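Anyone up for a design puzzle?
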């Protein structure tokens, strides 16, 4: 399992895809942070994270489109199926490789918020009563909650991309299909307010990834939301395992 994990991590940097993903992610995050906080002279980071979740529609498929599609295209899939590792171990290793790339980039992008703390320190230094009269600087609890939330949302999206990649040998098809599903998971939450039927709204709320993220955006760690995202990951990882079990014995 660890050998497959290392192979996948190495492949991100042997090919250009890893560098492209990191560069695009950091460029988008820096641009969005600049215009939602620094340009607006605001310490509110909620808009930044909502926009970054929307950006995952494009970013996550870059990570996942090759996970299994490339194996089928290069005819190395049989080597994986006959390797001394279980199918579960193989799938989980690929999932964690993509998650390592995603989580590492998200955490590194948090450096974007350093100027906000710097500005807050300068404001406090300029006004000795600033700490008493106003809450200067980003709310660390809210910032931490948003980071945890986007990591969980990203994990759910990665598991979707993993499953789609297992269904086709065409990386472009895998990327476009993953984009479509992730976009639907986001849009469902936005369309919910336009529907009057309570039963339909309830179902859409359960499916929507944004509804659960709202708890984290307020700095609240919600255990039910955590279980929700873990459940999505588990379902799609299980489906991916079933695809390869069928191929091994089919």
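Challenge accepted. My sequence:
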């Amino acid at each position: 399992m660890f050998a497959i994990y290392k192979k996948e991590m190495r492949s991100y940097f042997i090919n250009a895809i890893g560098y492209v993903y990191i560069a695009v992610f950091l460029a988008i995050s820096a641009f969005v942070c600049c215009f939602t906080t620094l340009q607006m002279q605001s310490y509110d980071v909620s808009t930044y994270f909502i926009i970054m979740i929307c950006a995952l529609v494009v970013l996550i498929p870059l990570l996942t489109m090759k996970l299994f599609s490339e194996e089928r295209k290069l005819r190395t899939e049989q080597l994986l199926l006959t390797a001394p590792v279980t199918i579960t171990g193989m799938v989980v290793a690929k999932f964690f490789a993509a998650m390592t790339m995603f989580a590492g980039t998200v955490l590194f992008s948090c450096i974007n918020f350093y100027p906000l703390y710097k500005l807050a320190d300068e404001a406090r230094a300029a006004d000795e009563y600033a700490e008493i009269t106003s809450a200067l600087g980003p709310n660390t609890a809210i910032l931490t909650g948003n980071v945890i939330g986007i990591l969980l949302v990203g994990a759910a999206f990665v598991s979707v991309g993993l499953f789609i990649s297992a269904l086709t040998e065409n990386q472009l098809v895998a990327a476009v299909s993953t984009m479509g599903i992730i976009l639907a998971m986001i849009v469902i939450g936005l369309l919910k307010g336009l529907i009057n039927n309570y039963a339909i709204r309830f179902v859409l709320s359960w499916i929507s990834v944004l509804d659960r993220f709202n708890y984290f955006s307020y700095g609240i760690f919600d255990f039910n939301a955590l279980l929700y995202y873990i459940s999505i990951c588990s379902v799609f990882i299980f489906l991916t395992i079933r695809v390869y079990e069928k191929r091994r014995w089919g």
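A detail worth pointing out: Residues 2-249 form one domain.
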